[in-house]
Each structure stands twice: as C-alpha cells, then as structure tokens.
C-alpha cells in the first residue's frame, strides 16, 4: 500500500456512501466535514481490558489502527474498556462513536461481540468489525468478525518449547479460563507432544476465572504463576495472558529459563527489554492485519459481512524468529506448519 493514499468510502455496490448516516432515534450523525468541503473518513476503535500499552493483544490492534491512519489518511479515535464492565457500557461506547459519525467502528475482543451486533442494527450505514468474534459468529449485513486460528500458531510454539527444553518439562499459563484461551493451550500441548512424545506438560495454570478478568492485566498474578511452574521443573513457559504475561516473561527470564510470548513479537517490546534474550519465540496473532484489512476493505468498497479467518495459510497467525533463538529448530517448525496448511495435521481447539 502506498503511503499517503487517502481512501474514499464507497458502498459495496459502488455507489458513494453517505457519510451523514442517520443515527438511532432519527438524529443525523456528524457529517465529518473537515472544513474545506471534503468528507473526513473516521474510524473508531474500542479497546479490550488493558487498552493501548498492554504490550500484547490491544497493542497489536493499535498497530493496525496506526498503520491505517498513516497509510490511508483516516481520522481515528480510541476508547478503553473498564474492568468487569457490563455489556451496556460497551454498547454506549459504540453508540457514542456511531453518533459522532465514525463510518467504521471496531470492537477489540470477544466480549464486544453482542454489543457490536446489537448497535450495528441501529446504524446500517456504519461498518463494524469485532476482533476475536465470540465462537467466530456474528450477524448483520454491516458486521464483520475477525477470527484467528490461535491453536495453529500455538501448535508451532509448543513444538519449539518441547524441542528446546532441557528438563523435559514445559508449562502453560492462561490469563482467564475461557474457551478462547483454552484454544492456545490445546494447540500448545498438541504441538509439544508431536515434536517430542515424551515431553512432560505441567497442568495448565489459569490466572483467574470469569467474570474476573484480572488475569489479562495484572502482572503480579503472572509472576506468582510462573514461580509455581518453575518450581515444578518447567524450563519453557508459554503465556497467553495479555498484560499479565509481562510478569510471566520477566520471572521466567530472571530464572534463566525460556519464556514464550503471545499476540505480538514480544522480543521487541520495551516492557521486557531486560528479559528479551530469554524470549524463545512468540505466537504471533495478526490483530493488526485484521484491523488494517477492515479499514482498507471498507474504503475500497470490498467490505463483506460475516467472518474472516486468519490462520497459518494466510499468515494470520505464526511464530516469531527475533533473536534467532529458534533458528536451530526452524526447519522442523516450518515442516509442521506445511503439514497443518496441507490438512495433514488437524490441530485440536480444546484441551
């Protein structure tokens, strides 16, 4: 995509999209006129718990929004979620942006699914994206759900963990015990067993149970869980715990063992700069790609409702090689990736 390209919104039928879409109750949304007669394309993004700066899932979404702002010349707004908030708060947040004339609105995280689907019905001229659509299901002609094959990417880092372990014992720490995070665990366990059938995988540790979502944002919880798995003999630990995973990485690295990051390439994160040499790899989840694809697609008039899957086949998930820590096992990991893409390996999605 060339820099400086300003997108012009069109509908999927090719006709010009009216930017002053009617809002709920018959009111008209802000027209988005930038003062010189041109219509400003506006994109609103509502973060999951932790928001921008979580060094993980939300930051990946933020990277996609930043790229859209830079490459597509759109105006953006961000709003963060509150811990343990009801769905009504999410709806209010989305309606606020829709009423302000944001032609594209993004809800980051599976918890936004119901709110997005409900609000989208009242704003038919606004396009909505929910990242990590719950159970990969959405409804509505103006709603897109981005889904990720987390289990596939986790399979590869699980194989890396088993191949690099010297004690023969590895661990997994999940943020909150929900089906989404269980997919990370399922893939990780399966990949480790495939690469080294005799590997010992400690019982998975989940930091919190819903409706308590502190397991995605409290590093102290990650620290304590990591200590427990280290004491049990693990020398490679994979976390899928969002901001709480920073505590996992620092604790594991401090013990001289291998940590595996999640969502973004955590080797490059400032928050764990002092631990980076003990980050074996990260399971990459291209939330940034989903966000950018959505904005670009609406701008080009190629938006399609329903769901879009990001997996190993389209590089929507994968593993990082920063630091060269998995160079010696990369050939094996890529062989496993090819087998998954070809359908020769079916990766489980439940532990």
What key attributes describe this structure?
single chain, 351 residues, alpha/beta, Rossmann fold, 2 domains, seven-stranded mixed β-sheet, six-stranded parallel β-sheet, 19% strand, disordered N terminus, BMP family protein
Describe this structure in words.
Its main location: membrane. Keywords: Cell membrane, Lipoprotein, Membrane, Signal. The protein is an alpha/beta fold and 351 residues long. The chain folds into 2 domains: 149 residues, Response regulator (Rossmann fold, 3-Layer(aba) Sandwich), CATH 3.40.50.2300; 157 residues, 3-Layer(aba) Sandwich (Rossmann fold). Helices cover 34% and strands 19% of the residues. Strands 6, 7, 8, 9, 10, 11 and 13 form a 7-stranded mixed beta sheet that branches. Strands 2-1-3-4-5-12 form a 6-stranded parallel beta sheet, sandwiched between helices. Strand 3, helix 3 and strand 4 form a beta-alpha-beta unit.
In short:
With 351 residues, the chain is α/β, with parallel strands linked by helices. 34% of the residues lie in helices and 19% in strands. The protein folds into two domains: 24-148 and 287-310, 3-Layer(aba) Sandwich (Rossmann fold), CATH 3.40.50; 150-285 and 321-341, Response regulator (Rossmann fold), CATH 3.40.50.2300.
